[in-house]
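Q:
Got a chain?
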Amino acid sequence: HPLQVLLIFAKEDNQSNGFWWACDRAGYRCNVAWTLESALECFLDKHQEIIVIDHRNSKYFDAEDICRSIRATELSEHTVILAVVPRTSADQEETSVLPLLDAGFDRQFMENSSVTACYNELVQIEHGEVRSQFKLRACNAVFTALDHCQEAVEITSEDHVIQYVNPAFERMMGYCKGELIGKELTELPKSDKNPADLLDNINTFIKKGKEWQGVYYARRKSGDSIQQHVKITPVVGQGGKIRHFVSLKRLHCTNENNKQLYKSYREDKNTGDNSQSESGSYKCKNRRKDSAEVKSVTSQSSDAPSLQTRRHSSMARIHSMTIEAPITKVINIINAAQENSPITVAEALDRVLEILRTTELYSPQLGTKDEDPHTSDLVGGLMNDGLRRLSGNEYVFSKNMNLSHTHLPVPNTINDVPPCIAQLLDNEESWDFNIFELEAVTNKRPLVYLGLKVFARFGVSEFLNCSEATLRAWLQVIEANYHSSNSYHNSTHAADVLHATAFFLGKERVKGSLDHLDEVAALIAATIHDVDHPGRTNSFLCNAGSELAVLYNDTAVLESHHTALAFQLTTKDSKYNIFKNIDRNRYRTLRQAIIDMVLATEMTKHFEHVNKFVNSINKPMASEETSPHSEGSDTECTANIKNFPDNQTLIKRMMIKCADVANPCRPLELCIEWAGRISEEYFAQTDEEKRQGLPVVMPVFDRNTCSIPKSQISFIDYFITDMFDAWDAFAHLPVLMQHLANNYKHWKTLDDLKCKSLRLPSENNN
């Protein structure tokens, strides 16, 4: 509602008119009163937020008297009262404002009839005192809610002096509010049932600004101890310091005192008596059993009391910990469950604990190498960091900083593309786009041409506020740093991943879940994700003791190098720095998104990324779609995802991961070509490992004995099927899934016929 202003003047003059017109300009509702009686009557009727009282001439009325009369009403608590005082001459001394403040005024205004001066004063009051008063008025609603809350609430100062307790707290502890307010917590009797160091642990925790949750014994006024679930939250205030602690307390209904209190409440409820029992019993009816805050689970079965007691016992131990990771909570719950379990259940839980204590929670465990050597070698080579060291061996590859191509002029703009290339690019939005044809007509420079087309379609230049010339130069320098000598990890692979990423970004649900910044980050990440790749795996580099492995501590070596080098190349020269015109905050956000996506292509965390996507995106979506109350609209689903940045991150990771290994989902001819290229690169690595006397990371990739169909089947079974099932469930990709099924059938046919090559002999002849 518009602000309301009351003007109290003895007579109409330039000053009263100045405020009247100022209210009109600001859009405030304005009333004018000329006497004390009419002023009080108007204020009690309208409850104005600002009152302006003429304090220039006492012969007409006493301004301070009027102010005191208004302040005497309860309604004036949140009203700002302004005194208009006469202008002082240059030789006159300023008068003190203390008498005005004592009378109830909030501030003074030096006489000035200018409408602008009056307007400025009123607007400053609105944005300062009035807004603060609005917040204070809202506090009444908050305290009303606290007074009716079923949980006991206690608020203390930073020095642990009690400043507020709600009625539920009074009932639980048996004290009256007046007995507690102003007292330090240390003055209240303590229960001797808590561990000796528990209070010190709690204080250490909350003084660091961290929330503490746990089970705590408190002593009631009557002297008996009760067990409580307690959550203590530090509240940061002025100066960024902790100013208050808010404690929420619920009865932990397991010990005898608590059960008695709970029983008392149940009896009162059943007889319809809502009065408090003599012992001050706390009404611990749980009215929030569906809330995530409720830690206990109540069984509906016949053995509920014993089961509930056991669960409460385990939760007590869990909550008494001060620093705990989620996995620690899980392990402690299982340990507690073992206590009274049958021997068969306890043994099964032992096996569960053994699995949970491993560091590789997301990595499936393979059988022996004899069972499936192809899968074992492939997974070992891709998912291990290869920390087997051999002294004296070092693998160093040159940074191909100035690689250049000839024969084909680089286009000045996207419209200045040779017709043969332009014709191919007309089909770039199709999944069946043939990247190898583009590779051929561009003399192995497909990335620049496809990049210009895709980046234009997604408005990347506009988002980055950079010219097309800058973008073109950037694409050139990135492509120049891919190794054309690699059979697989070259700029054609980068262009292929860029094409797949753009295709995914065009899918309705993906598009609706991401922002423009996410799209730009994804396209840039796809472009740079393998820049300066040496054609060797991380395991090889670690085993060889390469400079990069040493630099990046054997962790995500290549992926870290790709991102670092890409940003170094980009910011090295203004003529291809595509980030030079965006502000620092946007650049930081964009940079972090790009780094996160490129690092997601590292295979050691493959199953972690896929499982998180399934659990955080697929399963909640499936639940929504099958819920009888859900309308199941994509718009609602993507809107929910946009509300959670972590979910957007999972989608971007999954998208670039799928784009990076989408070869088995391409049309058969493209799939076969990619399979041949990656196999050749792995063959070359095995050859070099043997020459240098390094551990052979993937022994099955021996060019003399390897079955390419078997390796493709293992790769699809182990990495591709589950990931693309999850991605398809989100993005809806029927064409890809059909290609995947056809290609898998092709490889199975070859394997069944014991054929180790890419095609049947008859197909090769054709």
